[in-house]
Amino acid sequence: MVHVYNCHPFASQQIVQAEQEPGLVCCGGGVLFVESAGGCKIEAFQLEAEGCPLICRYATMGTVQSILHSEIGDYLVTIEEKNNVTYLRTYTNWRYQVAEKTRVGVRLLGHFLRGSSMRGAPKEQMEIIEIPLFERPLCVACCGVTGDLLVGCPKSLVLFSLKRQALNDKLSILDFERCLILHLPGLSPQQVAICAGYIALQAELEVLVVKLERLPGSAPTQMSADKKSQDHCLVPKDMITGAEHNNEIEVRKEGLAGHLDQDDFFIFPKHQELLGDRAKDCGVKVSLEWTGMESEARGILAITYILYRRFAPDFFQGCTVEDTRLHSLQFHPVFTSNQEVCAEGGRGVEPTCVFCFFSLPNTGYMYSVRGGVEMVSVYQYPEKAQQAVLTDLFLHIITKNALQCFSVRCSAVAARAEDPYIDTTMKACPPITMEVCALRIQLFIGLKALCHDRHHIVLLTAADVETREDTERAARRNLNRKSSSTKHRDPIEMSRGWNLYVVNTVPPLQLYNEMVEYSKKYEETNPLSQSCLHLLSEAHLLLRATLLDPWVGNPVEQPQSSDQNLAQSLGYTATNNIGSTTDRTTDRQELQKAFQESCAHLGDCFSRFDKRDCHLALPYYKMSGLSVTEVISRNRCLSSSPCGYGKGFLFFLKHSLYEETMEELTEETANEVLDIFGVAEPSQLPHVIASPSMVRASPDSGLAHLERLESIGAPSVPLTLSKAALALRMGDLQLYRQHMDRHTEMLQVYGFIEEHKLLLHGRGHTVVPTPLAHHLRDSQEGLLVAAMVALHENNKVKLDEADLFFQKLCGNLSGPQGGPQLLVDFWEALLMASSQEAVIQELLFRLTSVYIDRVTRRDSQGMKPLKTADDLINSCSHYGVPYPWVSILTPDHFSIIQDHQEDLQKLQSLLCGPTLDVSSILPLLEQLPDGDNAGLSVHLLCATKLDRHESSIERLLDRCPQAIIPYANHELQNNKMTLWWQKLFPELCERTRAAGGENTILLSALKETLVVVAMELNPLEFLDLLPDDGTAHFFLPHLLECSQRNLMTWSPFQP
């Protein structure tokens, strides 16, 4: 179904003052080219100027059968016939024909660039380049991105790359190089198209789209799917007659055109559509032949099949062959970023989207082929179309007596390719599958041809008075008459039934405003009208397409090519006739404002709907830039309607309040929101009241709504907590305690998980504690810490946000070393609950930093922690029981402030635990002195964890020798046992000798060490260990014990 509207996309029209009847027309770069004088003359008219004045005219070398202009390179390519021979020629620097009797240069392809005879001073002249071919050219196409030329021949496609040689700032010479031949056995193209590596060809009933891709690898000399051609290795490929393909051609002709059986029935193949990888099964075997310079081949060329479509007439439905005649094959690239003119005259980047369009007389098809092929739109024409052109904004078609304008979905596809946030809660765009519409049907008489250039549409009309053959026949009769009295009539006098029109399209902003006004008629009749939504969506896509235009979307002055310089030097514009940067910036600002207005209109439509698309009100209102208050005022009229507020509006309002926008509503608007949800969705009231946007809402009104909600349903924990928060805002502490006492603290934690905005508002650096959180800090800090831990573990709050929350809550904005005690309590509680390794390591580092800082500074904050060291040891696996030797260094009655005795014990427990990586905290130890036993214990724990036992033994013997044996018993085990006699025993002997044997602590430690050494060594090893000046009666008992143990373990049967 095609919607038909009566908009006015056409602004004005003017008649081109051509002297003779046009035959063929084309346009590009702001210029209209008209073939006249029986196909032997070309006239160029300026489209941008009033009245379309003549730029120049020049004769061709043959009768023109096809004409095409390339904006990249500003050249004209023609297929001409002379003496029954068909030629392919290009006309470059044609603007020099403005001056009369300007010389014209004629040369063959490549002669200027490679010949030595043209190395003199360049001459300002038009050049005609003749391109030799081994087959008759049937059709041509130019790439709108690179300016390359594609020629369709009966059995192949030939690709010529555009070359440019700059001679000076205002003059350059163009040339072409044949670089590739695509052999098409059994398929003769009637139309071809090329764009950014994509090639399309149209036969009588078929359309094939392929893509040329350069694969990484060695440079190819020849790459062909048909290996038989390698048999002619001494003969150039283009000289091969192609006889080896005859069998394939015959088979394909038989398969596609049908066959004649014994009963003379002609069988046609059925309709077929193959997309993507399936297209390679179409039966068309395309082979490649690289003919360019080897130095320019950077990889192996490969063919990727994109699309294959075959049509067949359905004679049973009354169709004829004419009803399936394909026409108007074309590619249309869409660019969505600032495109610079590159050195070769083409664009510097690839297009964002590439669309392929072709048409039957009654139906048009548009596909998106870049980034995956898909059908975008199908156009059903009200009458047979003769020709169609696709643009960014519209599809224009001509029938016998009408110019029709259809909407397109190019901007919808391009927007999704450009912006990944389309089709989310942040942004939206009308769907690609939305039905197209006809915006205007403008009547003309005898339409024959159509072409398009920017905002100009060129139409050729001719009444069916006399055909061209009749006119030429009459002219020949007049020339053969002998009578001198017969006056010769010019062809323009013989047939006046033709006109050449230039129709200008209106500016997109003006058409958008008309479409919005048009939609209001549908809205007045039915606010839920689908036609209103459809027309507003079309207007929205119109603005999107305009804003995606790189000249509008990024108004930066573009560098000029040599063609533009040439045109300006002659007084004309070669390419874009664009205003100044200031004008384009102003246009963009106006378009952006209209775009936001369009989003607001679409938001209004979807806010009224109750169907499944009602959720689109949220992204459209967001893109409109409207505040929540403004959206509420736009939908206030719905409250008095029979259906009330639409689901789309409620969806927007609910999500806007739940998001951390921090847009505070006025008291009046906030109370209105309470009334809206109190009627439409009462169950959402607890969450609405907790929103940061509702901080100015009346607590009395909110409490009344919650009371009514509780009376009609079972009370929930979030509802009770919301009532307690409102009571706190009212200053009624008794009512607050009454609500808080209704549930246990564990249930209240679950309630805070369900609605975390009862405790904090905002995200990131904008986190703000609520009044309820401030009250819990003073009355139930344990509940507050437990709730924040639960929020973190349920991904409601990030660790940094929780840190900022507690710092703001406690009025201390310093770093973690001087953080408030409640924050440290949160870290300790989170360490107990978290299972994320990254979070655990971060918490261990933060807690260690705090403990070391407090032990170092010893200035009490006067705030008691929620968990003691014993509590953490018993409930958290990351805290270990302090080692026995640590307790000797710092006993419980150690002379240190009680608060920091807890911090010291927690620090020692972390170091004795299994999780803390000691190497990560070594920089923190620099601030902790080891002058007392508290600091010494920490340094020794770290050194021991790093396997620095020898230095630890020395420091213990120097500072606290009574702890050496407990240290050795705990640490010197297994593979560290040798340190008993290699390090500890010699150290004790030396220190005891130095003390004269009077240090009882050292003597006792030496005896304990001898007991262990005697147990581990044999008598000989023990004797070698004894000092030479040792007292015999002191060591003899241990030597006897070692010998007795050795005899008990010795066996006579041992070898």
Automatic annotation (TrEMBL):
Any Gene Ontology CC annotation: cytoplasm
Domain named BLOC-2 complex member HPS3 C-terminal: residues: 510-1046
Record's signal peptide: none
One Pfam match: HPS3_C
Record InterPro entries: HPS3, HPS3_C, HPS3_N
Residues forming coiled coils: none
Domain of life of the native organism: Eukaryota
Limits of the BLOC-2 complex member HPS3 N-terminal domain: 3-491
Name the record gives this protein: HPS3 biogenesis of lysosomal organelles complex 2 subunit 1
